[in-house]
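Fold this sequence, please.
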Amino acid sequence: MKLLGLRIGEPKPEYRNATKPLDHVKRLHDVPKKDNQSIEDCPNSQESDGSLPLSGASSHKSTDIMPSTIPCKMESLRDEVEKMGSWASGGELKFRIMELAISDIGMGRHQWHLFVLCGIGWAADNLWLQGVALILPSLSVNFEVSNQFVRYATLWFYVGLSLGAAGWGVGSDIIGRRLGFNSTLVITGIFALGLANASSFTTASIILAAVGFGVGGSLPVDGTMFLEFLPHEKRSYLTLLSIWWPIGQVVTSLLAWLFLGTNFDPSRGWRFFIYSLGGITFAMALARLLFDNIESPKYLLGINKQAEAVRSVRALAHKNGTHTWLTEEILNEIGGTREIAEEVESSTMAKVRQAIASFGPETIKKVSPLFGTLQLSINTVSCAPSILNLRS
């Protein structure tokens, strides 16, 4: 049985058939072969680092946090994680190994399904932002409040949005990504039905806050869910979720044209309009509940559920029709057996230590143009948090 997309009373499949030996790492599906070299052949020359080059990869070793090669031997895997430097703890090494495993699996069917399901969550956010703004005149007429006072309904909605964004964002680190991912739109749809039957302006305002609390979690939870399943080289796809934002506005505008025009009585049209928005939100929630989702392996690894994290990576490989070399033995051999919660510092501190370790004349040469003028400096500083978040 499944409740909110979670398996209740059912054993979790282990996806053992999705495991392959580390010595048989395949080239990513979306990367073409180069120079007709066999992808199973591991370079044996003395100059080789035991890795399979990706298409377009240069011969020198990359200093980026993610390698330009896929390791094909355990020794190569160790070499890759050693690039992090001596500042890396065992827990951070395990996260890096998991990044390598997800990148090896590549962008596949499961991630594209997530793209659609996360995208409709982003569309739902704008769906309700526009919907609340459009019903304000009808609320003013129906509940006999002034045009100035009716704006407090928007205030309540934005309070709910703020609490939802903060609450679901932090809560997803406690209850998990999947439960929050499956719950936000369900909560929004339930309170939307209550809003359509509100008998007073006060009741409508309070319910709007609850609607905001539900839909407010869509952006942080959905974005995190999608990002944590993306291969490192495909993380820019997170910005593609923005194409769903105007879709929500278009749908709301079309429904408003139908229900908030002259076709219906003003006291009833806005209720039909909210029913429609609630129905669409419920349909979105149902699509998520029917989707056999996987809990984020990075979240599971962060709460010391290493076995389940490895199972999630195997599940990802299975759903993408490929295999993964990741096992608990590999994680323990490179990162140790100590619990991650005992040694991993905050991600901010990890980034600071990494930046200090890698800072040098070459870095200064690359970064200095961003601070060439006062305006460029202001723009760089203002964009830095978003850039760091995308690379986290």
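The beta strands are 2-3, 6-7, 51-53, 69-71. Residues 367-392 form one domain.
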